[in-house]
Design brief:
By secondary structure, the chain is mainly beta. The chain has one domain (about 1-75): Thiol Ester Dehydrase, Chain A, CATH 3.10.129. The chain contains 2 helices and 4 strands. It has a 4-stranded antiparallel sheet.
Length: about 80
């Protein structure tokens, strides 16, 4: 998820840290039960100091097997604290 957020900033102008990540796994993950899975990630919010992203792991028929959210602190070179 940090990679999604990182795409919005030039390398020389900012860096980031992931202070929190939450993962929920509502269904068991076994190859026999799931078959092929896909992951979709989105950036929900980018502010001046924080960003929020989420990712979902789903089967081809739309069953949700896992979901994660992440808060990221944006640290720009030269900015205080």
């Amino acid at each position: 998820m940090l990679a999604l957020i990182r795409r919005h900033f030039p390398a020389a102008h900012s860096c980031y840290a992931g202070p929190a990540i939450t993962v929920h796994v509502p269904l068991p993950l076994t190859q026999a039960a799931t078959g092929r899975l896909r992951c979709e990630g989105t950036v929900d919010y980018i502010g001046t100091r924080t960003a929020l992203a989420k990712a979902r792991l789903m089967s081809d028929d739309g069953k949700l097997f896992a979901q994660a959210t992440s808060n990221c602190l944006i640290i720009r070179p030269g900015s205080p604290g």
